[in-house]
Amino acid sequence: MRLVGGALALLLTPSCSAPPSADEPAVTDAGGDATPSDPTDRCFDALVPSGLGFGWASLNHRISRLDLGWSPTGDAGCGGAMRGATLAATFVGGNFTTGAFGTDQPFVLLDAFVVGARAPGSGDVASPVRTIRGRETLDLASQIDGNADNVGEARVVVPLPAGLDGTEVVEPFLDAISLHTDVPQGADYPANYAQADGYTTRGIAFAVDSIVRDAASVSFTVRARFGLAQADRPDMNAAIPHARTRAAVGWQVLVLGGATSSAAIVAYRQEYPAATTDPTAPLPPVPSTSTATSTTLPGAPTRAIAALRSFSFALSFPEVAGAPGGDYMREYSARIEGLRLAEGGRVELAIDGYASNAGAVPRGPTRYDFAAEAVVVGWSAGPDAAFVPGRFDFTVPSTTAPMALAP
Questions:
Q1: Is residue 241 part of a domain?
Q2: Which DSSP symbol is given to 279?
Q3: Does a structural domain hold residue 84?
Q4: I need a labelling partner for 66 at 20 to 30 A (CA). Which of 140, 150, 181, 273 fits?
Q5: Residue pair 266/335 in contact by the 8 Å Cβ criterion
Q6: What is the pLDDT of residue 75?
């Protein structure tokens, strides 16, 4: 998801869209009428996120608000399946991104696999794929120990559809993410710093884990971490130990008979050289890392998809007043790439985590520990899966746009 020289692969606004390149699907404008020939207007059984990311075209900023998710636009003519999908995104990085003191162009990314994509009106399909989606809001409590990590979790119990025999794959994973700083604060929060301006950070994390399935339900824990950490603003630094923030974790449960599943995990340390202060310069190059991983699915399936179950960034910056420091961030992204089925049910893939503090006020090189888990689901009959090749890079802080669902 790295930008080159500040250029974006595809720029969309709520009222217009750039023409597609040869390897990108057409995307209608956000107010246009979709037609059956439009690749945004497809029936589909499931949309499984495999990559989440957000960043800025030019500079690094505080994090004030992030929302990244999707929703189906309807079901008409799809025999009960979903029809069309819209990506919804908000990204604000303090008053230097809103126009109050400066502006910048945010971009967001949602990669996904689409299962059972087909043209509307092509006939009812009795799909074996079922999905359940939900969202948990977490008020993140500050651990006031000099680190000021805001963390939260919740236990979720999801009733399963009737008629399952216990042999189906039932897999929860991340479906959407959200962080907000403009929430009510306590009496100890300083009056001279606006929480809506956000904070410098030393990491974020989202997870769906501790999964337990029984005959009637599947339960799991959703978690979020927003690592607030001090940098070069005295008023912000004084507010950080008392700051309250809020997260939301969107989750999805995929239910599929005749399938198998397995987990793939990566954990590695990354470092980039000191970032340039030239906002027109490209983001730092990415050294070779151990992003490659693999897993094995029983039964040697012929189709496979993968979803992010968790990702975590823990960054290392110079200390401030004896406590771990933070910085203004240019980008965070976690993506599953290069998924490939090999012989004997072996599935090869890469889980790529990227973070950058490149911009006008970097405080040295970017160093971080990245960890992530993906769930891989495979099957040999039934619905086809198609990768959604579109990348959605928005030029405004809050917008929606149709997603190109590959047939």
A1: yes
A2: T
A3: yes
A4: 273
A5: no
A6: 87
pLDDT above 60: residue 298: yes
Q: Is residue 364 part of a domain?
A: yes
pLDDT surpasses 50 at 10? no
Residues 6 or more apart from 228 whose CB is under 8 A from it?
Answer: 142, 148, 149, 150, 199, 200, 201, 202, 240, 243, 245, 326
Give the global pTM.
Answer: 0.88
Residue 170 lies in a domain: yes
**Boundaries of domain holding 192:** 11-399
* Distance of alpha carbon 317 from alpha carbon 232, whole angstroms: 12
Please state whether 395 falls in left (phi above 0), alpha (psi between -120 and 50) or beta.
Answer: alpha
d(CA 245, CA 44) in angstroms, rounded, equals: 35
- What does the alpha-carbon distance between residue 100 and residue 95 come to, in Å, rounded to a whole number? 5
Instruction: State the Cα torsion 58-351-19-402 to the nearest 10°.
Output: -100
Q: pLDDT (tens digit, 9 = 90+) per residue, 346-401?
A: 999 999 999 998 887 777 788 899 999 999 999 998 888 887 766 676 666 667 88
What are the CA-CA distances from residue 44 to residues 52, 115, 334, 350 (Å)? 21, 6, 24, 26
Q: Rounded to an integer, what is the distance from CA 218 to the centroid of its chain?
A: 23
- Say what the pLDDT of residue 362 is: 74
**CA–CA distance, 322 with 368 (Å, rounded to integer):** 19
Distance CA 395, CA 106 (A): 6
Q: What is the dihedral of CA 189, 191, 194, 196, to 10 degrees?
A: 50
Tell me which of 388 and 110 has the higher pLDDT.
110
% of the chain with per-residue pLDDT over 70: 82
- At residue 57, what is the residue type? A
With beta carbons less than 8 A apart as the criterion, state whether 41 and 118 touch. no
The alpha-helical segments, DSSP class H, found in 279-360 are none
pLDDT at 143: 60
Q: How many whole angstroms separate alpha carbon 157 and alpha carbon 40? A: 33
Whole-number Cα distances in Å, 261 to 215, 253, 258, 273:
18, 13, 11, 38
Q: In the chain, how many domains are there?
A: 1
Distances (CA, A) of 157 to 133, 137, 213: 12, 15, 10
User: CA separation (Å) from 356 to 8, 34, 353?
Assistant: 16, 37, 10
**Unique residue bearing structure tokens 């799991």:** 220
**Cβ atoms within 10 Å of 155's Cβ, excluding its own:** 11
